[in-house]
Amino acid sequence: MEIRSELKYTKDHEWVLIEGETLTLGISDFAQAQLGDIVFVELPEVGTVIDEGDAVGNIESVKAVSEVFCPASGEVFEVNKELEDNPETINQHPYDEGWILKLKIDHLEEDELMNEEEYAEYVKNAGH
Amino acid sequence: MNQLKTTPLNAWHKAHGGRMVEFLGWEMPVQYQGILAEHQATRNQAGLFDVSHMGELLLTGPDALDNLQRLLPNDLAKLQIGQVQYSPLLKPDGTVVDDLSCYRLGPEEYLLCVNAGNKDKDYEWIKTHLQGNVTFVDQSPATGQIAIQGPLAEKILSQVVNTNLERISYWWFHKTQWQGIELLIARMGYTGEAGFEIFLPWDKTQQLWEALLTEGAPQGLVPCGLGCRDTLRLEVCFPLYGHELNEVNSVLGANLGRFLKLEKPHDFIGKQALQAAKQSGNYPRLVYLVLQEKGVPRDHFKVFSQSGAEVGEVTSGSHSPSLGQGIAIAYVDARHAQDELLMIEIRNKKIPAKRIKPPFWQIRK
Q1: Largest CA distance in chain B
Q2: Exposure pattern of B319-342 as b/e (b: 16+ CB <10 Å)?
Q3: What's the pLDDT tens digit per position in A10-42?
Q4: Residues B128, B273, B248, CA angle at the centre, nearest 5°?
Q5: How far is B344 from chain A (nearest CA, A)?
Q6: What is the rounded end-to-end Cα distance, in angstroms, of chain B?
Q7: How much is the pLDDT for B51?
């Protein structure tokens, strides 16, 4: 399982990449593996304004549905439309082509996110 | 939590990447490499399934047939030695205790293969209703079961057991010896594909499992979990107990008419209720729905008529790997069972779903 050092992680197994005022959101390699084959991704509209901790989309695998939460408030300015036709991209490249949305950050409690090591420990404990 | 029951292949599953889950009190693999890959392998080459959790109940004696004729709505009068027959097992009110396959092993010898989660309930139910000169034994702890399914299943299995399987017809079985082990090989399955289900002694199950994989893996045979077993059976509209069959809905609505022999002379359990329900016509019917937009219907999602009235509930819903669409089986009120278009509510949105004549997917001839 891959965990990347340049990313921060949530307790719901999303990853975020923070670049100045923008945030890119996806789900972790651990999360995609737990979900199994992803067959449908429900994305928010561009322009949606969200609050911290809001559900911003749904990921459907063959067996289960999982909500995607965003740890920041702000406005969605881009969504990954490619996922509508190729949802399995999240299984294949969760940290690259499998990103879900980009947000202009209004507010974010960065302290509540985990770094690489903290997330590795968190996953180890979530594994059973 | 209670200790989960395990099959003789439990350690094998864990050692080979099986993702183990709880299934009706059993620890079973839901998948190895992935549900979609295993589903496609079964449709295109072959899949291998551990179904040792299924229950096996043996009924023998001079009055065995009479008892089965009273317990089951199907007519077993013409069931021959070496033949298998499917039947639901009903309560007096016409709802379903379980569904089972009845194997006639000898003149007065019948093996009932029942669902894992219902085995103890079935055993008690049947035992309570037995009359006359019969012996009834639960053989489940001693019996392993493997299913091999898919277009290459026959080739692979015949190579391993060195038996001509052509002489076994659909819903018939043969007993054969393999490495000193007695196998009961039946041509049947739960995937809609060609294939076989094999009964054998519990402690020999892994031996056959590994022999099949050694022979079959180079030809595309893969171990399959319960995840694709469910998507495979759903695509061909086979009912699953606890979903389409239960102790709430009359079996009359379950699209199993060909197994309900109301005309047979025996006063089988549930007969009067079925006759009365048939008169009234007032019972929910199963409908088979294909979602017209993207999304995945799930069990218990509500079903609405086009005018917005709630008319039923999904019993089994999934993404169909073969169709690439969301599919569902649902119980709906009798007067909406012929509606061409219904709506399935997914996260507060009503998505149109088209009613089809089952199955969703058909084996390529």
Answers
A1: 64
A2: bbbbeebbbbbbbbbeebbebeeb
A3: 999 999 999 999 999 999 999 999 999 999 999
A4: 75
A5: 16
A6: 47
A7: 98
| Interchain CB contact of A60 with B (< 8 Å) | yes
Q: Where are the domains of chain B?
A: 1-283, 284-365
By the CB < 8 Å criterion, does B189 face chain A? no
Coil, helix or strand at residue B150 = coil
Please tell me if residue B298 touches chain A, with a CB cutoff of 8 Å. yes
Which is the CATH superfamily of the domain at B1-283? Probable tRNA modification gtpase trme; domain 1 (3.30.1360.120)
The owner of tokens 């008419």 is: B257
* ipTM above threshold 0.85: yes
* Confidence (pTM): 0.95
Q: What are the residue ranges spanned by the domains of chain A?
A: 8-123
On whether the A8-123 domain is CATH 2.40.50.100, my answer is yes
CB count in 10 Å sphere of residue B139: 14
With CA atoms as reference, the chain B residue closest to A86 would be B324
Say if the Cβ atoms of A40 and B294 lie within 8 Å: yes
A61 CA to chain B: closest CA distance, Å? Answer: 8
The fold of the B284-365 domain, in CATH, is Elongation Factor Tu (Ef-tu); domain 3 (2.40.30)
pLDDT of residue A126: 80
d(CA B233, CA B355) in angstroms, rounded, equals 18
User: What is the token pair recorded at B183?
Assistant: 């196998």
A84 and chain B in contact, CB less than 8 A: yes
3-state DSSP call for residue B116?
helix
